[in-house]
Amino acid sequence: MKSNLRVLKMSMLAAIFTSAFNPAAYAQTDTTEADAMTPKLSAENNVDDNAITAKVKGELMRNAITNGLDVQVETSQGQVILSGTVNSEIQLQSAEQIAASVAGVKKVVNKLERKG
């Protein structure tokens, strides 16, 4: 049940972002084929990045060590940036490992800081 809900949420998120960026592709006039493809690829990258961010956040919430932490997640072209504060080195390392394990993540930049 949770898996079905997660798939539904991700599908809806992808549809929203795809429709949000789609009008830009049609607004162009007098372009070459390569130019016409640029907005579509950019929109696809944004959808992928948003999906990766959502997956990383979800995995961090599901993990007993990282659940409830003050961790922000940003993704750009498959590179995940973790920032915020954690209480221990194990939480810091776990967050990085969890992010790296998500499909589509090319690199993790860990900017997490330990309290104290």
TrEMBL record:
Keywords: Signal
Coiled-coil positions: none
Pfam family, one: BON
Domain BON per the UniProt entry, residue ranges: 48-116
Leader sequence segment: 1-27
Keyword field contains Signal: yes
Superkingdom of source: Bacteria
UniProt keyword annotation of Manganese present: no
Protein name: BON domain-containing protein
Organism encoding this protein: Sulfurirhabdus autotrophica
